[in-house]
Amino acid sequence: MSKLEIGNKNFLEHKEMSKEDNLKKNWKKDFPIEKQQATNVSRRDFAKFLTLVSGGLMVGSGLVTAKAYLYPKEEVAGEHFVCKKGEVPVGGTRAFVIEGSTIPYILIHLETGEFKAYEQKCTHLSCSVFYKPGTGIIHCPCHEGSFDAKTGNVLAGPPPRALPKLDVFFKDDAIYVRAEQEEKIG
Amino acid sequence: MSNFRRSQNQSNPNKLNAILSTLIFILIMNVTIQIWLLYAALNNALENNKEILIPAFVASLILFLIGFSLLYYMPTGNTNKKNTR
Prior knowledge:
The complex is a heterodimer. Helix content of chain A is 34%, strand content 26%. Chain A is of the alpha+beta class. Chain A is rod-shaped, with a radius of gyration of 36 Å. By secondary structure, chain B is an all-alpha fold. Chain B starts with a helix and ends with a helix. In chain B, 22% of the residues are buried. Helix content of chain B is 73%, strand content 0%. Chain B has 4 helices and no strands. The A-B interface holds A 34, 36-37, 40-41, 43-44, 46-48, 50-51, 53-55, 57-58, 60-62, 64-65, 67-69, 73, 123, 160-161 and B 13, 16, 20, 23-24, 27-28, 30-31, 34-35, 37-38, 41-43, 45-48, 50, 53-54, 56-57, 60-61, 63-64, 67-68, 71, 74-77, 79.
């Protein structure tokens, strides 16, 4: 046997040994986590995750508060001309937009002779609402929401809030709107 | 030296189980209340009712702090018995 052959044989034996080692001993290195430990870890991680969600909700609540106080919703400033009284028949409506704003409004001439102005966006998902002549109801076709045309309050359907309102007043024959005057209570 | 945490970890696995389950239960309850608070705050913010916003945020903060401090009582498991004995 030459030296080379002996060397080769040793090498092969060594190789076989290391395979055996792998099978018998090293598998624990590959899977070092015991079952109990694994279950403990996942539940602990779940608890930590819940705390993270809790923190996220807290931050969200803080952002809502900050937004409401730092960037309040802009009120309509001043008085705006809409149209003449004669242009809107009884039971009719007229859409209008105030200068410098993109919010659509509707002016409604109720059967009682009153004029009312509301934002045309449904408070549910911002669909366009329209007045149903003769019923006193402002209707949202998207999800069958109904508002009272006299007050803007929700009568039926999914909308969570009343329609935002503008005050209507007259100068001779012209119809003007302005921001709703807050009713001071107490 | 032993502290509260280590003695808890050395206790019966049943006890660890109870601690962890209770903790998760409380955390889920906290998160539920917080979701409700956020929902209420958002609706009221859109309605221009600002009075409720700060109390809702403070309540949310307190609930988060409760949850966070409860993590101290979370068992780390008693798998390393060799080291502690």
